[in-house]
UniProtKB/TrEMBL annotation:
Gene3D superfamilies: P-loop containing nucleotide triphosphate hydrolases. This is ABC transporter ATP-binding protein. It comes from the Bacteria. It comes from Variovorax guangxiensis. The keyword Nucleus does not apply. InterPro entries: AAA+_ATPase, ABC_transporter-like_ATP-bd, ABC_transporter-like_CS, BCAA_Transport_ATP-bd_LivF, P-loop_NTPase. Keywords: Amino-acid transport, ATP-binding, Cell membrane, Membrane, Nucleotide-binding, Transport.
Length: 235
């Protein structure tokens, strides 16, 4: 469904990605593992059209995404939930959610249904629908960020470090919601440093180091890989 072929990406003279080839097929939950600066976010930036690769192809189905505008990519079904949440703190929770549906803004009834679906995923957000997003806890803000991405009606959801900075109980809740989204039929590409929790729900995973894929495999093979355990999981 989403395929990278030999993708390079540069920031000026710095090469952030080199020869990235990966795929997330329809219905899969695929994890990207790697340390800070390894290139996980750059993969998402390339897929969502924020930064154009210097080489290679990114295809969603039969569509080439390289060269498309970000809004067109979202409309096609590839939606990015960024690291750090990137909410509008003075706007209400509901307004932040509605912004995720900008490319579908003419479908008022559909937006209302999608917001109701987000509230069913995150009941606390319905109670805080009129509160400024910046007044919410970190975990609740992450819920808004994921909900906003769901308003884009993703076929492929790019989730960048959704557990970052969250308390363990909240991390557990967030991963449970990711599973629910995946089981409902959305393909998920998940970048995470919380390797054990991510691999526990994954179908497959890639390990990214210094902009290159150094290892790939299914959940069990990576959970039992000594190098992965030493670098990302521990005893």
């Amino acid at each position: 469904m989403l395929r990278f072929e030999n993708v390079d990406l540069h920031y000026g003279s710095f090469r952030a990605l080199e020869g990235i080839t990966l795929h997330a097929d329809a219905g899969e939950l695929v994890v990207l593992l790697g340390a800070n600066g390894a290139g996980k976010t750059s993969i998402f930036m390339a897929a969502s059209g924020i930064h154009k690769p210097s080489r290679g192809s990114i295809r969603f189905g039969d569509r080439e995404l390289v060269g498309m505008r970000t809004a067109e990519i979202v409309q096609s079904g590839v939606v990015h939930c960024p690291e750090g949440r990137k909410l509008f703190p003075l706007m209400s929770v509901r307004k932040n959610l509605e912004l995720g549906a900008y490319v579908h803004r003419s479908d008022k009834a559909g937006i209302a249904r999608s917001i109701d679906e987000v509230f069913s995923l995150f009941p606390i957000l319905e109670k805080k629908r009129d509160d400024p997003a910046g007044s919410l806890s970190g975990g609740q803000q992450q819920m808004v960020a994921i909900g906003r991405a769901m308003l884009g009606r993703p076929k492929v959801l790019l989730l960048d470090e959704p557990s970052l900075g969250l308390a363990p109980l909240v991390v557990k809740q967030v991963f449970e919601v990711i599973q629910r989204i995946h089981r409902a039929g959305t393909t998920v590409l998940l970048a995470e440093q919380n390797a054990y929790s991510a691999l526990a729900i994954a179908d497959r995973a890639y390990v990214i180091e210094r902009g290159r894929i150094t290892l790939e495999g299914d959940r069990e093979s990576l959970l039992n890989n000594e190098a992965v355990r030493a670098a990302y999981i521990g005893a």
